[in-house]
Amino acid sequence: MAPVMEGDLIRQDASTLSAALAAGEVTSQEVTQACLDRISQVDNDVHAFLYVDSDAAMATARDIDQRRAAGEELGPLAGIPLALKDVLTMRGVPTTCGSRILEGWRPPYDSTIVERLRAADVVVLGKTNMDEFAMGSSTEHSGYGPTRNPWDLERIPGGSGGGSAAALAAFEAPLAIGTDTGGSIRQPASVTGTVGVKPTYGAVSRYGLVALASSLDQAGPCARTVMDAAMLHEVMAGYDPRDSTSINAPVPDVVAAARNADVRGMRIGLVRELGGEGYQAGVREQFDNAVHVLTDLGAEVVEVSCPHFDYALGAYYLILPSEASSNLARFDGMRYGLRAGDDGSASVEEVMARTREEGFGAEVKRRIMLGTYALSSGYYDAYYGQAQKVRTLISRDFAEAFDQVDVLISPTTPTTAFKIGEKVDDPLAMYLNDIATIPVNLAGNCAMSVPIGLASEDGLPVGLQIMAPAQGDDRLYRVGAALEQALLDKRGHALIEEVPSL
């Protein structure tokens, strides 16, 4: 391959950097420093990062370069920088979950994901901004201020993992990790023109992932290309006995699927309920174009009905707040993080109340109250119990659909990125951004968002969602990589290259 020019380092994808590092054309220190320099240049405007660990990142890069020079065989992602969502614990590094209630907390242990990143010699640049405790669709609910979309700094980068997606789109890092409870990887990927994958529930360990809703949360890879996401997915996934929901089964060969992408003979289902009214015209137009591309590539595209998807939003916003109200009870000012009102005369209950009042933001309080009400005596069966029944029906819809087709597709989001402040005071309007992504989390299946073009009205990115059955993650990469390559051939360049200069 041709040498990678130093000035182009931040714009290279991870697979290109991997080859250049292995060939000795560039060092990890050079790549890492280029990312750190980029963060210094643009992150005051973007605010993708909450914490940048420059010294540790450079020390890791230096160690990797020395071991490579000594002839040690290293993995494909060795020396590649990565941005980590601030909901995953990393020993000695601040972990706030975007909340003031955890300000200053430095965990004494690594999450399983961080352990695996260390084992793969990935360079962690720092922790990215997010909606507080992953509750939000715009990263406006962070206790540390909003992240901005590099395509238009007046617009949101999606949420809750807007920091990770924005870091990719702003060329601050070639790889990132997010978490997806109802679309928090896929929705930011869609509105920033990047790739985001929600793996099968249980495929990636949740040990050390600060829980929002334990039956829905799933960490996954974020990248600028499908192959890069596959390489990171391979490092992250695998059985972990410390996570009781972890799947003890081989990880599908997602890298091979991305490398040998071919959709000829595949049956692809277009979900009737995830389209139509409420979708921006430019989103619909790009989605329809992508469907034609898949047909031209040899796939058979058929319409599939999943009738209970219409109830997914309501069910989700009962299940998630209910689990959140239980999980967030641990943040009480007694053991770690913020402690307010402890003047020596206050009771334990008063300290807890004041800590939660000062430490939790409005959206977190709203969802805790919703969940506590839904779980309360006399209302449990009417709300939480009914929502779980709907969840079962949605899982059956998926099962019946996957009896007919290999994957399902839809637009990832109904619209492109909206302006900061536009929906922050209208919770229902905000929740509707996840209408297409929520069903996958309820069923535990896997899904990917891949960029497919720019909306004609505003020139902002549009994403297509690919959904596959549990442990069918390789199908996502097969279809996503085929579509990505076809669109590259059509456009002549990657969509992410069009991001305006900051």
CATH class: Alpha Beta
CATH architecture: Alpha-Beta Complex
Indicate the CATH topology. Amidase signature (AS) enzymes
Q: Main beta sheet, described? A: 11 strands, mixed
Multimerization state = single chain
Note the run of SSEs as H and E.
Answer: HHEHEHEHEHEEHHEHEHHHHEHHEEH
**What is the molecular shape?**
globular
Features:
single chain, 39% helix, globular, Amidase signature (AS) enzymes, alpha/beta, 11-stranded mixed beta sheet, 502 residues
Q: Can you tell me about this structure?
A:
- The protein has a single domain (11-252, 261-308, 392-490), classed as Amidase signature (AS) domain (Amidase signature (AS) enzymes).
- Helix content is 39%, strand content 12%.
- It contains 16 helices and eleven strands.
- Helix 2 runs antiparallel to helix 3 (54-69) and helix 10 crosses helix 12 (362-375).
- The longest helix has 22 residues, at 381-402.
- The mean pLDDT is 95.
Please specify the SSE layout and strand pairing.
Layout (H helix, E strand, L loop, with lengths): L13 H9 L5 H19 L2 E4 L1 H16 L11 E5 L26 H8 L3 E6 L33 H8 L5 E5 L6 H7 L2 E4 L20 E5 L2 H11 L17 H6 L7 E5 L9 H16 L3 E5 L7 H16 L20 H12 L2 H14 L5 H22 L4 E5 L15 H5 L6 H6 L2 E9 L6 E8 L4 H19 L11
Summarize the structure.
This protein has 502 residues and is of the alpha/beta class.
